Prior knowledge:
Blueprint: H1 8-16, H2 22-35, H3 45-51, H4 61-71, H5 119-135, H6 141-159, H7 164-188, H8 192-209, H9 212-228, H10 232-248, H11 254-270, H12 274-289, H13 305-318, H14 322-335, H15 341-357, H16 361-375, H17 381-393, H18 401-410, H19 413-421
Amino acid sequence: MPRESGNVHLKAARQHAGYASQQALVDALARAGSELGVDHTEVSLRQVRRWESANPPWPHAVHQRLLEHILGLPISQLGFTPPWGAQPERQNATPRTSTTMSVTPPLPLPSPTTTTQPASIAVDYASVTKAHRRLYWRVQPPLIRAAATEHTRFGTQLLSEMSGAPRRVLATALAESLLLVGRIEFFDLRQPNEADARFVEALQAAGAADDQLLGAAILGHAAFVPGWAGDRDGAAERLRAARAYMRRAGSTPALFTAWLYAVEAECETRCGKHREALRVITKAEDALADADETPLPEWFDWFSPIRLASFKGNTQLKAGHLPQARQTLLHVLDELPDEARKQRTVVLGDLAAVEAAEGNPEAACAHAGEALDQLSITWYATGMERVREVRRALERWADLDCVLQLDDHLYEWRTTLIALQR
C-alpha cells in the first residue's frame, strides 16, 4: 500500500520557500509573528504536522496571515478546505522576495473524484511527456513551451479522474512536464518568476506521485532562481531540501549526485564565491569517479560528465584561471554531442570571454560569432547573455573591424527582434 501523501500543497510550498523541515516552518512562523506584531500567537510542531496531514484543519485567521506572509501564497493555494466548503479567493498574501520569488501562485492539484479513467490514459499522457522531452532540444522555446504548458493543464484536469497506481504514473509525468516548462522559462526565456511558480507546481505533482528523486530534481532546479539572483542563503536552503529528498529516494545514481554539486557550484559562482565553487566541482568529479550501476531515471537527460566540465570551465573563467578555463572549454566543445546546441552557445560564449580577458579580441569575436550563428537557429537566452557579456568586455576595442563585424551580427534584424521579443 502506498503511504499517505498528506497535504502536498502545503508541504511543497514549505519546501520551495526554503524550509526543509516542519520545525523550520515552526521557527519561521514564530519570527513572522514578531514581525507582524502578533508575538503571543504560537504554532507548535504538532500543529504543523496536522496541517500537513491528509485532512488538515482550517487554520485560525491569525495563522492564515502568518502562513501567507512567509510562504507568499494565499491560503486557498495551500491545501486547506474552509468549513463552509468553497475555497476563498485571497489576494492580500505578502509575496516573499528572498527564497521564494514567484509572482504567480500555483494552482492546487485536484483531488480524485468518483469518475475514473482507464490506466491507459496515464500511459498515453506519459508518452506525450516523453515526446516533449525530446523535442525540447531542437524546437524553438516558445513553441515547445506552449505545447508543454497546455499538456500540463490537461494533465492537471485528468489527475482528478485517476486513482491508485495510474494516478501516480500520471502525476509523475505531470511533474516532469511542469519541470520542463520551468526549465524553458528560466534558461531559455529568462523568466525567473514564472519559472519559480512552475517549480512549485511541479513539486506538488511529484508529491502526489510520491517520487522523491523527481522532487529532488525539481528543488535542484529551483535553487538556480535565488542562486542567479545572488541570494546564496536561498539557494543553499533549496539545495539542502533537494538532498533530503535525494536521501529519502534511497539508492541514488552517481550522476545525479554530481549534478546537484554542479548546481551548487553554479550558484556559488553566481554569488561570487569562486573558490568554494571550485571545491564543490571537485566533489562532483569525485562522485563520478565512484560511479555505480544505479540506473538513471529516463527523465534525467540534462546532465553528463561533459556538461560537468562545462560548469567547471565557467567557474574557472570567473575565478580568473584563464589558461585552465580555455583548456577545459575547448575539450567540452570537442566532446559535446550534436544535439547539445544550446549548451554549445554557452561554451562558445565562455570561450569568447576567456579570449577577451586575455586581450585577444579577434579570437573573442570569432567564438562569439559562432555562438550567434547557433542562436539564430535555436534560441537560448542563457547563451545570448554570455555573448552580451563578451561584447561589454570588448568595449575598449570597439573600433576594431572584428568588433564592428560582431556588432553587425549581434544587431542584425532577426537577432535584434528575437532579443527584444524575449
